[in-house]
Specification:
alpha/beta, Aldehyde Oxidoreductase, domain 3, four-stranded antiparallel β-sheet, TIM Barrel, 43% helix, 2 domains, single chain, elongated, 12 strands, 279 residues
């Protein structure tokens, strides 16, 4: 789970970088408008979606005009329909024009992630499985996208390489064995979760005997997943992974695994269609 301090820091870094990239040494087009001019603007949807990115939009416009007035008509994580007004903004015209594209980029991208996550979560709502994201995120937007995942009703895996062990084939080969790799992880950082990726039931047995906190079943068949669930019951938690899509998701969830990790939650999202217009 992303703590509030980490989230606030990410929002500020994201907005600062995006505005620097877009505005550079000044928005020459906005200077066509008199400096004292004021306007009202609205952002509306052109398709159904799950809203996400409100804090980023607020930060963009307030960075450009601290006195801007922003009134949201929807809430973060809310499902919206087509042609629905999301927010009304009133302030100096130049900052509104300058911030338009950056604000929409954040809102469209994060809403896309939340929308996909909401769709996937609805497919397994009848089961007890938790859907997890991965590290397949847009560089620089890791925290933002993982926040959007939670707004869509899914869950975060590790945030990065620093907060949990995920021991894969190359780690195992370098350490000599699954048992050796887990033992080294426990010695190196006793308080961090240890997850091991396995590709066969034989490797599953080794990871169970070594006391892995979570075992990732990489590209297991449904029958092997069911066997793994029986073998692991009461001993550890299981995560299914590998090539999972909306067609294969429910059968995998029904095997009884605890988690399913899906790269598509953050990797393959198409921006939600939104528009900003001056009244």
């Amino acid at each position: 789970m992303i703590d509030s301090e980490t989230l606030e820091r990410a929002i500020q870094l994201n907005v600062d970088a995006a505005l620097a990239e877009d505005v550079g040494d000044g928005d020459v087009s906005a200077k066509l408008i008199p400096a004292e001019s004021r306007s009202c603007a609205r952002i509306s949807s052109r398709q159904a979606a799950t809203v996400c990115g409100i804090p980023w939009v607020n930060a963009v416009f307030r960075a450009l005009d601290p006195e801007v007035e922003i009134e949201w008509l929807v809430e973060e994580g809310q499902r919206i329909g087509e042609n629905q007004r999301l927010v009304q903004i009133e302030g100096l015209s130049r900052p509104l024009l300058t911030g338009e594209r950056t604000a929409l980029n954040f809102l469209q991208t994060l809403s896309a992630v939340a929308t996909v996550c909401s769709q996937y979560a609805s497919l397994v709502a009848s089961t007890g499985v938790k859907l997890l994201d991965t590290r397949k995120t847009i560089p620089g937007l890791r925290i933002a996208q993982k926040y959007a995942v939670t707004m869509g009703g899914c869950f975060n895996h590790r945030l990065g390489l620093y907060d949990a062990f995920l021991i894969k084939e190359n780690h195992i080969n370098a350490c000599g064995s699954i048992v050796a790799a887990i033992a080294a992880a426990r010695e190196l950082a006793p308080g961090k979760p240890v997850e091991v990726e396995v590709e066969t039931l034989a490797e599953l047995d080794q990871a169970l005997d070594a006391g892995s906190d979570i075992i990732m079943l990489d590209n297991f068949s449904l029958d092997d997943m069911r066997t793994a669930v029986k073998l692991a019951e009461g001993r550890t938690r299981l995560e299914a992974s590998g090539g999972i899509n909306d067609q294969t998701l429910l059968p995998i969830a029904e095997t009884g695994v605890d988690y399913i990790s899906i790269g598509a939650l953050t990797k393959d999202c198409k921006a939600v269609d939104l528009s900003m217009r001056f009244d």
